[in-house]
Amino acid sequence: LRVNQDEPMEDYPLKVEGGKEDDSRRFGMGQTTKDQMRTNVINEIISTERDYIKHLKDICEGYIKQCRKRADMFTEEQLKIIFGNIEDIYRCQKKFVKSLEKKFNKDHPHLSEVGSCFLEYQTEFQIYSEYCNNHPNACMELSRLTKVNKYVYFFEACRLLQKMIDISLDGFLLTPVQKICKYPLQLAELLKYTNPQHRDFKDVEAALNAMKNVARLINERKRRLENIDKIAQWQSSIEDWEGEDVLVRSSELIYSGELAKISHPQAKSQQRMFFLFDHQL
């Protein structure tokens, strides 16, 4: 975060003649350093949100709209793989930024109460889970298409037409993944500069926990999907599989290793591979 790269000197009381604290660490109209830092964080949250909205709009209008015009180059299924549910995210973020702007106190930004906005949208932010889970597929599909020159030229023409900065499409599509991970960092910074007496303190504290939970939930869903994918691949690699699919009962491989099977009466030993799943061996 750009907000507070260095601890400001003003946080340390200055001793002046007579041993009293110098009150020069106050800003302007009785605004303390902490209030000034809170203003910086609030401004950062609002400005990055506006930048992000523009970014999403550019992707939806600059790329998706143009791609839909070219049915000869893209199927609707391909567009779903490449862009995931980014249009849903755009709609959600537009409402979220309006909510933030309503709570923004232009005259005294440090008095803004934005914590409630994050609490209000915590459930809606779970749509990022679908986007994050799909993102590796989007990268693979883009990588496949950009081996063909006409797609390279087409994506570049879209970027230039929309007057977007010089980054490839896969770079633009990474932004929502980064964004949802950035909210807990911004809120932690905001909490740091919010006095416990501030009307926003409890909401910011709750919002920080809520956004950490959203990020945790997204990571957990992603991990589970990866596990399910691994099990499906593992099962398909085994010849003459008998019985029901492992995925009917289990979703996680916990441990695997060799065991020796001892057959009596000759006490013959045979090596066997065993796989322990969460609901079966």
TrEMBL record:
The keyword Cytoplasm applies. SUPFAM superfamilies: DBL homology domain (DH-domain), PH domain-like. Gene3D superfamilies: Dbl homology (DH) domain, Pleckstrin-homology domain (PH domain)/Phosphotyrosine-binding domain (PTB). One of its GO terms (biological process) is intracellular signal transduction. It is found in: Cytoplasm. Residues 12-26 have a biased composition (Basic and acidic residues). Residues 37-221 form the DH domain. InterPro entries: DBL_dom_sf, DH_dom, GDS_CDC24_CS, PH-like_dom_sf. Residues 1-31 are annotated as: Disordered. Pfam families: RhoGEF. One of its GO terms (molecular function) is guanyl-nucleotide exchange factor activity. GO terms for cellular component: cytoplasm. Its main location: cytoplasm. Keywords: Cytoplasm, Guanine-nucleotide releasing factor. PANTHER family: RHO GUANINE NUCLEOTIDE EXCHANGE FACTOR 4. This is ARHG4 factor. It comes from Catharus fuscescens.
